[in-house]
Structure formats: C-alpha cells, structure tokens
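Task 17 of the worksheet. Students: predict the tertiary structure of the chain below and write it out as structure tokens. Keep your answer in the requested format; marks are given for formatting as well as content.
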Amino acid sequence: LLPAEAEALVQALQGIELRDIGGQGWLRQHEYVEKLNMHGILSASAGQEQLLTELLVSHAKIPVLIGELISVEIWKHKVFPVLCRLEDFKPRSTFPIYVVLHHESSIINLLETVFFYKEICESAEDSILDLIDYCHRKLTLLAARNTKAQAAVPVLPQELQKQAETMEFEISLKALSVLRFITDQVKSLPLSALTRMLNTHNLPCLLVELVEHCPWSCWEAGKLKKFENGMWHMVPPEDQVKMTKLDGQVWLALLNLLLSPECQCKYRFDGFNKSQLLKLRAFLTDVLIDQLPNLVEMQRFLSYLAVTEPAPPKKDLILEQVPVIWDHILKKNSGKWEAIAKHQVKHAFSPTEEELKLQARRWAQTYSLDMMEALAPDKPRCRVCGVEAAKRCSRCRNEWYCTRACQVQHWQKHKPACNLIA
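Model answer:
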C-alpha cells in the first residue's frame, strides 16, 4: 500500500455493533483489516513496519481492533449457536460464516505484527486489560488441547468445522506471541494489568502448563512433528532438541513475568505456585540454555526459589481497573441473542447468488495473486499429490498442480470453486 492508502484504511477502522457482524459495512471493514494485515506482514519482512505502527498510534485505532476481536469472539460463542438452531437458517453458502471466523484470525495476526513496539502497547490504554483476558482465554484452550477440551464453533459442516478448529489453534498461537510482547513492556504497563496477569489469571502457571504439554509438537507413527510457519512439519532426529519460535515465546514470557522486579513484588509465591514453577527445572537442559542463554538466569532463580520462602506480596489498598469492552458488549446485548441471530439470518447469512458473486469479486481484488505469492513462505504445492508445483489452473489461477494428470484428476472437486472465481 502507498502511505496515503494505508492512512485512509487506518482512519476508516471503526467500532461496529454486534448485530451488524456479517453485514455489508462489516465486510468492508474486514477488507480493510485484511489489506492492513498483508501490508503489515510484507513491511515487517522488509523491516519497514514503522509507518503502520505510527498510523495506528496516531489515530488511536488499537482499542478499536481489540474491540473488534472481542466482538467476534462473543459472536462465536453467544450468537452463532442460536443462529444454527433457527429453522430458517439455511445458508446458501458457508462463505459469509467463514469470513466472520477468519476476521478474528486477521485481527490477531495484525496485532502480533505491530505489538512488538512499545508505542503500540502504550496506545492500547485501558483496553490492554481486555486483550490480556483474551490471550488468557486462548492460552487456556491451547493448554487444554491435548485433553480435547477445546471446541471451535459448533454445528458446522464437517469441512468448515475442520477449518474452524485449525483456525482456533492458530489464533491461540498468535495470542501467545501477543502476550509475550505485552510482557516485554511490564515497566510501562498499568498496575492493574500486572495484577491481572500475575494474580487474577496466574499466567506463570499457565505458561508452565504449555512448557509441559507443548501443544505445537506431537508424535505420529514414531516420528516427531512440530507446528511452524502455519503448518505441521516432520522433524528429523538431529533437530528434535531444537527450540522453535513458539517454545522461545513461552520461555521469554516466563523470563519477563518471573525475573522482573515489578513482577516479583506482586506475584504470590505460595506452595502451589512454587511447586508448579519448580517443574521448569526439568526442562532447563544445557542444550536448551545454549539456544537461549538468558535461561541461565531462570535456572539460578529456580534454584534459589527451591531453598527459600519468598516474602508474600504487600497487600496495598488499591483501586483496580476492570476490563470494559467484554462487559459492555455483554450488558448491551444480554437477552437479545435470538433477535440478533434472526436479524443476521435475514441480512447477512442468506446471500443471493448475485451478492455472492459480488463479494467473491471484491475478495479476489483484496487477495491479489501477486500479494499472496509474496506472503507465502514456501513454493506452491500440487493440490493433489503435494509435490512442488509449477503450473496453475489457467481459468481461475487459484489452484496449483505438478502435472496435467493431477489437474484432470482434481477437476470435479475444483469445478464449482473455479466457476465462482472465474
């Protein structure tokens, strides 16, 4: 984007009512977020993301994005289950639903790109408490992943349900990165934000759970797989002890929350918390410390913690802030979930064929092929056999194939999407 285009898109971001999710105005805002998200990723890869950061700060749009994030989360858990129970909910296409689910992913991705900067964290102001709560909810889902406790959006067609579950997992990983960037700024956070992270949500113990269960790695048929760069990879034996970026985010967040003087003064090192934190000693191997030398300080701290009883935190009388966005949306819409669902069936989730085509054209412009190829970390793969591909469908230019034979084999499945896009 040109600087003027980026500024126009940032200025256009605004809070949208819960009942308008999925409507035309909301879809336009989703396009703005998508364009800014892609612009942010490309700028970050070129080391030039300062412009976007400055625009979001100067126009005070970080609280707006956090508000959008919370709105979609509440919609998923309050409105959508009611929507699915309505007799007249027979969507012509799952496309509008997928867009709403994807919106949350786009916003958290944009926040992950820009929250590296201290100015962004400070510009969030009081809404940082809502973002901390949001990240806590996502990390709790992530920690419960191995117990199958988490659920994506219920009552969806099987293919969309799979996509929703994958998206929920990736959103949780992005929330982990955002939380780590927030912990980098403990010195400039409001007092209430620290109290919320350390005592209300007990994030250090939640992070210990993530170290223990490591939901982004798993064993399959005797081989180790790890999730990196948006996909699962088979890990060769020589790389199995190598720390991933996600492992690094957890350890850096723990370093920030346990070793900074501000946090040590506020955290309760009681019997339970102490026993949980001491579990980390088993993971602090020489190989791990070689990859992240700062963990030597963590090792020393845990050794000291094992033989001492830290002083309890001072019980100062303070007025504590509470998150406002979540409570405001719930209070404003409480008891109206069915009315909102009926409104959205009529105005958002039963599009005509013409409306679908129009929206498909708008999305084709948003996701230009040149832009998508620039964003892709790897070379395209054949849709059928998965090997590296050099040919694509000449009609819609959206699917890749290694040979003509694979394209012919996939045509019956690809034909409906190809017709719509073309």
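Marker's comment: Residues 211 and 283 are 8 Å apart (CA to CA). The radius of gyration is 23 Å.
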